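Subject: sequence -> structure tokens, single chain

Hey, anyone have a minute? Need the predicted structure for the following. Not urgent.
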Amino acid sequence: MISNIPSVKLGIVAVSRDCFPESLSVNRRKALVEAYKAKYDEADIYECPVCIVESEIHMVQALADIKAAGCNALCVYLGNFGPEISETLLAKHFDGPKMFCAAAEESQNDLVQGRGDAYCGMLNASYNLKLRNVGAYIPEYPVGDAEDCADMIHGFLPIARAILGLSDLKIISFGPRPLNFLACNAPIKQLYNLGVEIEENSELDLFEAFNNHAGDPRIAEVAADMAAELGAGNKKPEILEKLAQYELTLLDWIEAHKGYRKYVAIAGKCWPAFQTQFGFVPCYVNSRLTGRGIPVSCEVDIYGALSEYIGSCISQDAVTLLDINNSVPKDMYKESIEGKFPYTHKDTFMGFHCGNTCSNKLSFCEMKNQMIMARSLPEEVTNGTLEGDIAPGNITFYRLQSTADSKLCAYVAQGEVLPVATRSFGSIGVFAIHEMGRFYRHVLIEKNYPHHGAVAFGHYGRELFEVFKYIGVPVEDLNYNQPASLPYPTENPFA
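Reply:
Had a minute. Here:
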């Protein structure tokens, strides 16, 4: 998985205003680095020793040093008030994600020569960043002692991974979206604005590549690996060789087509002609690649693949893409949820997809046929889904989307998968998100989001929210599940 997401090496550069003691910034930087190394992996960071940045010349020297050290992310650390021009020029000329944080005063007994006023300096820094149109991450409360700032830097790393990943990502898609999938529209202009490349292919190209892999000597080994993963859940062993052939086709396509990009996500086709021509459905293969950090979205959902990739970078874990699918029956709610978990009936729903969630995120799994497709097609061409209830635990439901008129929007909502048997089919779980009913109506419906949502396995709302802000999603178009005390603009106060 690590090969498809970036590694971050963050350079810490301390700055100082020339009318303040330089020693404040020097000593505070040293204390910050010591605190970080005591608590976290020291390989994540690099302390710029060349100089304390007080001037534009110092800025150039520091920039050269962190570049030579291989840093791909930057922390500008205000050890005192800071030189607002030089520090923001450093951020401007650094090609990569950057953050700002500032030193708090240490003691009531040292507020004369030992007072740095970085609390004030952060205001000037933010003003100058805006003047120069420089984007930077500023923590929720960006002023702290060495341990506080170490935590801020560590909290920036998943955000930086996502920003770096987007800057070197190619999304490979196959085929136009199926009929009646207008909701998953994908204007590609915003992909380019984000620095993402897109390669759109015909599913006929994919079919040709698949046929060219017939008899590939690697098929037996991949099929055996699939059988070992599935164990007793291997209900369709006769289809494994075809699925292995398809997996090799996708992996070889990635290597041949990623070009100058380092990272890849796939927006794949799975119906309506896929089953009859390939002779299977690709869900299980999609789950395996996604489990390795190569997200594969269903139904040529390009922004679904993009969303999955962001979550994969942040969590350093597998993600999935699900339909916000069906309501929880009242009798299930009363029997299994009411009084046991702090959720109303409207807080709950079921997230489902045919079989694209990787096996280690399922409570149990079986590789079967796709029931919905088998209602209208011969069962033998609908084999290849991975079915099972999604394992209970914390989740974040989210999506980055371009509207039809090419405007970025996004949502983030934290919740959990409940330990409740779904009694249904597909990759599916009973989800609970506080105030989901209102969120469903006044965000998902009101703002015309598609039914596909990405799922990260853990609470990553803070990181996702900051990534979406950093890449330019307007604040008014960055939504979350608001508490009952905070009405949505379209919410009827008399309802």
